[in-house]
Amino acid sequence: MQVLGDGGIPIDVRIDGGGAHVVVLLAGFPLTRDIWDEAARDLARAHRVVRPELRGVRASGANDGPFLMESLASDIAAVLDEIGVRRASIAGHSMGGYVALAFARMFTERVERLALVCSRLSADSAQQAQSRKALADKVYSGDRLALADAYAARLTCDATRASHPEIVRRVADMAAAIDPRGAAALLRGMALRSASDDIAPELTMPVLIIAGECDEIVPLAEARTTARAFPQAELAIAPSAGHVPMLEAPEFTSAALSRWMGRIDAVSESGS
Ligand code: MLT
Questions:
Q1: Is residue 232 a contact partner of residue 114, using CB atoms and an 8 Å limit?
Q2: Are strands 22-26 and 48-52 parallel, antiparallel or unpaired?
Q3: Strand runs (DSSP E) across the chain, as ranges?
Q4: To 10 degrees, the CA torsion angle through 89, 90, 93, 96?
Q5: CA distance 179 to 44
Q6: Is 265 helix (H, G, I), strand (E, B) or coil?
Q7: Which residue has the least CA distance to atom 9 on ligand 1?
Q8: Residue of the nearest CA to atom 7 in ligand 1?
Q9: What is the pTM of this model?
Q10: Would you state the pLDDT for residue 270?
């Protein structure tokens, strides 16, 4: 289905499964919602799984942006409004985590649980923002290899590259499916994002942090610091996984997400 997001941008949404609890899965960059296929299949056995394609990606609309994380969060609110859902669990992978954090700041009461997969609380440093904008310029001008050069090799860990070339191909295919205009607008939006360290201590819902043991983009030490910033966060470290544990360690990732979805059920069932 398509929903009109912030400013009338069409947002393409896929919904699987059913049940009392809704979980929204948000993809990282430069990836598509297909990154969640295995996790969505597992979660959909017990829950309603909502996967919006973020603006700028495939069938969702794009313009020149920049796509602020707050606009992407407003798109998610519009999707939930359209399907009549007030509160949902939000899981964001990397850039999807930046969107989940913006959503949690803007619509705290709508967040039942929060999961960050290989994501971070900090904003870009001045230097990171500068190189992100330079990459956006290259991508916008049609240099498709620039995106692959910047991300492809860093998304998976060495062990995955050696033994699972199909995973490496799968992420490369996703990156290739993103419209250059949308990709540039997302890069510019990420460069402008605010840090979320201030809001983390206020987010008292169950939080899950999933880290890849050998993630080169969000190192394990940073994931540990992120987990400590929330009042009640569980840290799950995916063994031998890099930046895409949902592909590199799918059973581990699905199990962690299912446990996290069970945390509120257990609380609600015990009458809290
Ligand atoms: C992602 O996977 O979404 C990106 O690594 C995020 C980023 O570039 O900061």
A1: no
A2: parallel
A3: 2-4, 10-16, 22-26, 48-52, 88-93, 111-117, 207-212, 233-238
A4: 170
A5: 29
A6: helix
A7: 95
A8: 95
A9: 0.95
A10: 37
